[in-house]
Automatic annotation (TrEMBL):
It is an enzyme of class 1 (oxidoreductase). Residues 20-482 form the Aldehyde dehydrogenase domain. This is methylmalonate-semialdehyde dehydrogenase (CoA acylating). It comes from Pseudomonas borbori. GO terms for molecular function: methylmalonate-semialdehyde dehydrogenase (acylating, NAD) activity. Signal peptide: none annotated. Belongs to the aldehyde dehydrogenase family. One of its GO terms (biological process) is L-valine catabolic process.
């Protein structure tokens, strides 16, 4: 598709300038509630992408020497600008992604928390010192930036996930090339503009657009030292293999199938409300969405009430007040979700609530699918094995907590899980025995705040260190250990030491 003038063209950010791409390949950015074309996004040329990396490499020479205080103050200013522009950012996000306006503000807010954390970099990037490790010898560590780092982000959190990446990379002294999702790059671009306004120097943050070709260039480019990826398991595995084969650090946060366990002693109304919010919020398009609920013992009798409560959720455009569930991101996503619901029926699951083809007055063209509930789901069914990434909840029974834990541990994914109970002993057993990286106790979506790091595990993650928090400081820096000794002017030289010991 070629660009034409009726809608704006999304710009590239290269060397501090917003530039129009010279590419011939463009893609529409579409409002999922209306199909209105909001903008066109370029697939940058190799020359443009190389220019972005070259600019970041040049900027690194001075940025790496910029004092901590100067770096931190940019993020103090940046958090203020994000707050001041919250409503405008949320409206842009909802228009291109579909989620409700309050949830769009939540998306931005969870990213803002990382920006606030980046403003605290002085406390985070400190080394260690051991005094007198041998006679007159001290050892200490420096945490030095790597160089140019790259970020590749998914469509579902177009504010939060870019903000997981570039603020911490830049605050630790690196420069950055970001490739946002080509499905909804507008709010990400606005956030990049605000970062420049906050004082990020030219070349320190660059943004390129594109798809597989852009991602492959970032994985291959010799000047890029580390790659952060968030997205599907298939693409993340490819990125991890390709980037690490090229000697880069890589961290890939990927797909999920998150289970909640409900014990019969749980607070019933709180539990049901939390389950619905986590299963159907953002139309199920969260990597931490609860897509499987295991009802233990008598909690299985809660199923009719779960369905009744689900029927009260309002499906509408995300920009309409009172909406609970907006559209899914694209027509292709709608086809995928509808197809998986059909497969669930074919494979013998019991469709208790069918959300397909809801009527949404005024938004007949939107990609809507309402909340859908399956019971009688078994681990071999497609709706259990695949990440549906839509508002579809699979309900499964278990006799005991141990049986439910065993089911979750047999699933390959390890992003998030939750237990609803009033029993401290059950909660502790769950916390100890469950093989999932992020655990909620009466908390349905246990995404840690940036005092901690995002710690998905098993098939949901490749690479040791997670995004944001303390772990990402390690990811974006090289630890250098300095062992030093100073001789007094008049110190006599002893005999030559040919052993490994420090004397
Ligand atoms: P996606 O994998 O399709 O796209 C992610 C990025 O990869 C985009 O920037 C895209 O342009 C690029 N890409 C797409 N196809 C590619 C290819 N063939 N080669 C190279 N690059 C390619 O993911 P998505 O649909 O945008 O996002 C949804 C997925 O992200 C879900 O699986 C969800 O669970 C996952 N996700 C995970 C986390 C987490 O923290 N674990 C967070 C959010 C989303």
């Amino acid at each position: 598709m070629t660009a034409h003038s009726s809608v704006p063209n999304v710009k590239l950010l290269i060397d501090g300038e917003l530039v129009e791409s010279k590419t011939t390949q463009w893609r529409d950015v579409v409002n999922p509630a209306t199909q209105q074309v909001l903008a066109r996004v370029p697939f940058a040329t190799a020359e443009e992408m190389n220019a972005a990396v070259a600019s970041a490499a040049e900027a690194f020479k001075t940025w790496r020497k910029t004092p901590i205080g100067a770096r931190a103050r940019i993020f103090l200013k940046y958090q203020q600008l994000i707050r001041e522009n919250m409503k405008e950012l949320a409206a842009l996000l909802t228009a291109e992604q579909g989620k409700t306006l309050p949830d769009a503000e939540g998306d931005i807010f969870r990213g803002l928390e990382v920006v606030e954390h980046a403003a605290n970099i002085g406390n985070l990037q400190m080394g260690e010192l051991a005094n007198n490790v041998a006679g007159g010898v001290d050892t200490y560590t420096l945490h030095q930036p790597l160089g140019v780092c790259a970020g590749i982000t998914p469509f579902n959190f177009p504010a939060m996930i870019p903000l997981w990446m570039f603020p911490m990379a830049i605050a630790t002294g690196n420069t950055f090339v970001l490739k946002p999702s080509e499905q909804d790059p507008l709010v990400t671009m606005r956030l990049a503009e605000l970062a420049m306004q906050a004082g990020v120097p030219k070349g320190v943050l660059n943004v390129i657009h594109g798809g597989a070709e852009a991602v492959n260039l970032l994985c291959d480019h010799p000047d890029i030292k580390a790659v952060s990826f968030v997205g599907s398991t298939k693409v993340g595995t490819h990125v991890y293999n390709r980037a690490t084969a090229n000697g880069k650090r890589a961290q890939c946060m990927m797909g999920a199938k998150n289970h909640a366990i409900v014990l019969p002693d749980a607070n019933r109304q709180q539990t049901l409300n939390n389950l619905l919010g986590a299963a159907f919020g953002a139309a199920g398009q969260r990597c931490m969405a609860l897509s499987v609920v295991i009802l233990v013992g008598e909690a299985q009798q809660w199923l009719p009430e779960l369905i009744e409560k689900t029927r009260t959720l309002k499906i509408n455009a995300g920009a309409e007040p009172g909406t609970d569930i907006g559209p899914v991101v694209s027509c292709a996503a709608l086809d995928r979700v509808s197809g998986l619901i059909a497969r669930g029926v074919e494979e013998g699951a019991e469709l208790l609530l069918d959300g397909r083809n809801p009527q949404v007055p005024g938004y007949q063209d939107g990609n809507f699918v309402g909340p859908t509930i399956f019971a009688g789901v078994t681990p071999t069914m497609s709706i259990y094995r695949e990440e549906i990434f839509g508002p579809v909840l699979c309900v499964m029974p278990a006799k005991t907590l141990d049986e439910a834990i065993a089911l979750i541990n047999a699933n390959p994914n390890g992003n998030g899980t939750a237990l609803f109970t009033r029993s401290g002993a059950a909660a502790r057993r769950f916390q100890e025995d469950i093989d999932v990286g992020q655990v909620g106790i009466n908390v349905p979506i246990p995404v840690p705040v940036p005092l901690f790091s995002f710690t998905g595990s098993r098939a949901s993650k490749l690479g040791d260190l997670g995004p944001y928090g303390k772990q990402v400081v390690q990811f974006y820096t090289q630890t250098k250990t300095v062992t030093q000794r100073w001789f007094d002017e008049d110190e006599a030289g002893g005999p030559v030491n040919t052993t490994i010991t420090l004397k």
